[in-house]
Amino acid sequence: MNASVTARRLPIISLQDVRFSYEGGIEALKGVSLSVARGENVAVVGGNGSGKTTLAKHLNGLLKPSSGRVLVGGEDSSKTSVAMLARTVGYVFQNPDYQLFCTSVEEEVRFGPKNMGFGRDDESALAERALKLMDISHLREQSPVSLSLGDRRKIAIASVLATSPIVLILDEPTTGLDSVESAQLMATLDVLRSEGMTVVLITHDMRLVAQHMDRVVVMSEGSVALDAGVEEAFSDPDRLRRCKLLAPPITVLAQRLQAQGVLPKGAATPLQLVELVARVRGERQ
Amino acid sequence: MTRFKDLYTEADTFLHRLDPRVKMASVLLLSLLALIMSALAYLLVLLTFIFVLLLLARSSYRKTAFAMKFVLRFMALIAILWPLFDPSGTPVLIRLGPVVITEPGIWRGLASAVRVGCLATVWYILIFTTSQRDLVRGLVKLGLRFDFGLALAIALRYFPTFGTVMESIIDAQRSRGMEFEKGNMFVRARKYVAVLGPAIVSALKTADMLALALQSRAYGARRNRTYLRELKMRPSDYVALVTVLAMFIVPTVAKYAFSVPI
Fold this sequence. Notes:
The complex is a heterodimer.
Chain A: H1 3-8, E1 11-21, E2 27-37, E3 41-45, H2 52-59, E4 67-72, E5 75-76, H3 82-85, E6 89-92, H4 105-115, H5 120-133, H6 149-161, E7 167-171, H7 179-194, E8 198-202, H8 206-212, E9 215-220, E10 223-229, H9 230-233, H10 237-242, H11 249-259, H12 270-284
Parallel strand pairs in A: 3-8, 3-9, 6-7, 7-8
Antiparallel strand pairs in A: 1-2, 1-4, 4-5, 9-10
Helix pairs in contact in A: 4-5, 4-6, 5-6
Chain B: H1 14-17, H2 20-36, H3 40-56, H4 61-85, E1 92-96, E2 99-102, H5 103-129, H6 132-141, H7 146-174, H8 185-191, H9 193-216, H10 235-257
Antiparallel strand pairs in B: 1-2
Helix pairs in contact in B: 2-5, 2-10, 3-5, 4-5, 6-7, 7-9
């Protein structure tokens, strides 16, 4: 392994036995240990109320652990302000309407870098790049409120990207989008990933996980029930069901074909299934 | 900060069972009584009576503690500050430059503190023992137009929801590097535009959806409404009402008609 690859794998976020209770005494995290390396793509999945969002809010200091430690870029989140942590970790909320308030898309995207005190030139460059990445440059003059949910979500992501974070957290970014909008959004995320962005995706959509993510953290009742690569995570349907999850249809299909002896064991993601089928065909010919 | 969705605690006490109209009338009468009485001894009797009611209300410990911490602090503040600003009467106890503290000043301060304690606690008891629905039901029965009652009920219902929304918006903006603690008062006030904008938009959207939801359930289809649960005065309600009325009328008549110094 060469030096640059090793550097990429240093943890940018690490949680050490993090416990968290909301006021009223509900313990939402019961000793979570987790580390996210630079450039990794992690899906956080789990049923409603399993602690996904509580976990995510610890990653940028919005919530501070009741006990245990959260290190973001080496800094203890309990001792650092959210504004400081926001330079490392960008957090896109589930509902874009909770962050859009400016009269034009461009202003909205510039808001973050302005807060962080980037100079005017940097601010423009960052905003420009974010608008382009999310493919919304043509909307810059428009008012965010009047645009579609898909566009508003792109603006919300652009407005966080413009702060040039190292890690991007997305809380259910595809909820309420139609298939085309959802596919577009995930394609944009793929571009970001290929540029080295660390992505933490909170989602219910297992198809997205199978297609776009490398690693799956399954939350169940405030604990990490499973932390594994996509293939391994989907390999045990019963374990998934216990965590209130279902494997994506493509994986279920592969597993059924394997049970019938049509395919050898091993496929989980669409890409792997394609490879597997191609291999089997190759063997037969 | 400790927050509650609602201060009401579900329980089965005679205070909970009382007709909301009787409870509202009683709270008003006891409040007036606290305002009319000025002698410390009688105010203390009233406060004791109200504290006994508070115990009988069997509200949750956390909610009671939350409310009473606030009331007791406020009472202490009044008892301390009143004598400093009320230099009338003799004997003078302390004279420190412009500050004159007199004995009657101290007594009046204590009386005012107890009076405020009575006023605040009695309203808390109402809120502890009456659900929002019952409050609104009582008001409507007393002649409030039903649409206004419904609007009030909805407003109360959406308070905590709106609080959660505001919190999320503040979190979202903090995640974009906004620091609400920094800058002078005006700078900080201006920052809240970033919160109020989304908050108002989200409130309007919710209101719009709610209106549609009400209409799709045929709200306003009939002029005369019927009610699933009719409020009905029971014998115990009359007993309670008469008791409180007597508690109000006897001291008031004694004070104003017979000049009894209470």
